[in-house]
Amino acid sequence: MKSSKKSKQNDPLIITIGGLDGQRLKSHLNRVTTTKYTWLTFIPINFYEQFRRAVYFYFLLITIVSFFVNDTISPLTSLLPLLFVMIVTALKEGLEDYARSKSDKIVNTTKVTVIRDGKEQRINSEFIVPGDLVVVTSAGDVPCDLVLLQSSGPDNKCFITTANLDGETNLKTVFGPPSSELAKDGMGRIVCERPTPDLYSFNGRLELTSESSALPLTIENVLLRGVRIKGNDRVVGCAIYTGMSTKLQLNSRYTGNKSASSEKYINKFIIALIVGMVVVVLILYLIERQRDANVLPTIPYFGAQPNYNAVLQIFEDFLAFLILFNYMVPISMYMNIELYRVFGAYFMQSDLCLYDEETDQPCMVNASNLNEDLGQINILFSDKTGTLTKNEMNFLKCYVGDRSYQLQATHLFCPATNEQYDLETLGANAIDFFEALTLCHSVEVLESNGNGEKSSTEMQTECTSLLAKDIVERYQASSPDEKALLEGCANLGLIFDGCINNTIHLRRILAAQEDNVQELQFERLHVLEFSSERKRMSIIVRDEMGQIWLYSKGAESIIFPRCNKSSLLEQIDAEITEYAKEGLRTLAVARRTLTENEFSTFMKQFKDASIQLNNRNELIAKCYETVEIGLDLLGATALEDALQDNVAETLVALQTAGLKIWVLTGDKVETAFNIGLACKHIPPGAEIHFIINVTEPLELLGRLQEIEKSMETISSGKPYALVIDGVTVAALLTHTPNEFSQLALKCRAVLCCRLSSLQKSEIVTLIKRQKKHITAAIGDGANDVSMIQEAHIGIGIVGREGRQAARCADYAIAKFDMLMRLLLVHGHYNSERLSFLVLFYCYKNIVITGCMALYQVYDLYSATSVYNELYLWLFDIIYISFSFTYLAISDKHYSEETLLSFPELYKRLAHNKQTSWWIFLTWILNGAAHMLIIFYFAYAVLYDNNVVFEVGQTAGFQTFGTMIITVLVIVGNLKLCLVAHYMSYLNFGIILASIAAFMLSTYLYNLDTSTSLYNVFNMFLSSLPMWLYIIICTMTCLLPDFIMKIVKDMFSEPPPKVKPELTECWKSKKLDA
Predict the structure, then answer these.
(1) Whole-structure pTM value
(2) Residues with catalytic function
(3) Which residues bind Mg(2+) (predicted)?
């Protein structure tokens, strides 16, 4: 059974174009459902998910048991807090799900045009099924995944934007199959792979009834749901994936949840409280048993005694105490933590210093449960291109014809001869080199806004720079490198005019000739696509003489091994190294000729590989290898990628904060190394160690030991930096991963070059395994996604390479320098605030539960609560929760300016130092002291003479409990004034309002004649001894805390003074937090 199910999943989809009645099934509809619940399933599913939390399930069991065991404690004492927390959580999730439901309805009822039975029909989007012919017009969104069959644009292609899919705003091209009159019923069928979430891959074939051979289909033939048609196009496509099977929806599904490091200490503290509770319960139970065995037999008028050794009686007695002290486990803390995280995310999203006005991009928070870990990061992994640099390329230099040239406007300057050259004055090698650059690319040209093309006379009168500017503005490139190269060529007078009907049109501006424009045409035969694995792209063209050429460009480490040996290769290799030392990005360019027979053989192999549904990419890659050999090297290019603003200052600040920064890049070692020096990733004066091109295990181990020994013997205090290339990284990860990680973690800066995206994620995984560090990864491109998702915290930059990294990240910012504020300010605040929230919860629960434990000594261990049920119901909800939760949300130990000026303050929170066992024990002991003072002061007031009311009445049991809870509420709220670092009028107002809420609720409740608290609070408030007790007991509790605070402030370091130069953002923009 399992094997048949597995084979069915591997079977390809077969879709009849035009659709059949059998395909129009409900399961195949284009209905999108992003909700988790329905009206019927909301309560059972939501409550089931909540009860999966151990604390919630524990309270549920306690509530159920309380109905049968302890008569002195109402089950509502456990039930009401549990229901309150669960209802709030359910309402939050329910409202979010209802909003998703309304959004789904809008999407599903959008009107679309389909062709059925040869006629166009307008239907709701949700009723599209696989096989339907869907019509999409200009500026329209594609409703499902379609294979493009027909377009009104030239060459049966259309332009699209994928901003809704991956955030990229540049235009992309989708091609229809090379056949006419495709969009009609019964024309054939599409055979393709089953839906996958990969946005950049698609394998299928089009089997036409009119043709014997199949046409290959790739991602270039597919319009994905969410893309938008641009231009004056009307396209027709066949629906293949619909509804929840579209690639967009598959990418929107849950992919895993990261948990914060705070979960560890929260669980640790709760376990400690539970263990403490069980110990107290066990002690009280044993004392009760001893009393029952020795005391009760001496009192015969109590009647016959039950069998206390019966298992059921033992179990019941033990559970009675357990129910009494279940308040020690803070269930409502989880709700308060979620509330704190929501506000923390809001503060980040509203921070004007994290808002980029140029792109209208605020900070995005996709995982608020990780807010506090922003203040715990030890290792930062960063991409280089687009992250540390702007990814704005400028064609700066090239090497061709045995010389290096600098591009200066419309001329080439040769430093060796100190002369300027026009392109036409250089030799044939230079012409071939620049022709290769204008042919080997994937750039598209948008149509001009003018009224048709200019006449040849007009073109002759225009200068080269104006011609270049006009065409360059209409270039649409997926890579900034390609656009920069074409812009440089256009400025030199070799202009790419576009590709129409697979004919590439070039123009050469010949200033020395009267007829100064030469038109060149090349037939584009095939494009060998670029990929991160191939690190190169190639194109096969036929020139006007009928000669077939293959042009290739890519990383020199990939191109050089495919070139014929020559002296030029060594010269260019040396020059590329010099370019890299200047921090420039380099490419090597080569070409070769192909015979008709070689080309025909290649195309046959390619066609056979391209129609395969399994292992298609591997087969195509092997096919490409057969022609990308025997190349003649033409030259090399060097492009400048400027550093991001304030990169050096940001990296220095983060290193001062204690972060070790790893830059993982695909660039050449020399390029990345020099940029690392320029941006101060590698600290000035650092001792730098290189491990380059080392692959043998023994040699690797020896080199690692040599470097480690060098670090141990040299005690100069210098920081260490490690530089490694991709080949070495692969060997290190395979043979000596532990030794590599131990050595690298001793370095302040690590630079890994020539890495693939997989290697980036493998390095992050290696460091995560140490379990001693909190890692963060930041990047801007699709190749950084695996690294971002693997790290404990992923941070995406909304960059020129698109939004895919930002979409997959936990947090997203517009610029790299915003990272400093995100970590040093928001990370610090969130980490410190959560620790206070958790510790204060433990403190207050010790006080309220401890008083109940002490009371058992004086009530014959009867498991009776000292508090009225009202107090237990409202204590965690109203009396104290609002005041300290608001303080936890808004408290600031240091100002934003101070945290930015002194990054070393970040170290004080590293490894959750603020929640160590010693600090936890301090809070617990403080709570125990307050518990003893509050209880025994109340006991002392009533011990000798309990006539404390003005009419001569004695205080009863309810009065004793009211005395304790009154001081407890006042002390708990006023203690916030002593532990707070930042108090506002609103803080004071909430504290006073919490105390007033206790007074008011108790007063109103004591007016009810049916309650045991009837008229108790009235007499309490009218008694002078009660007021004296409140004042004296409160002062006794808080006075030692106040003295300790004074002593601590006297001997602690004064707050550091702020550096004014780092507060410009604060002065110019107002922080909404």
Answers:
(1) 0.74
(2) 383
(3) 383, 385, 780, 784
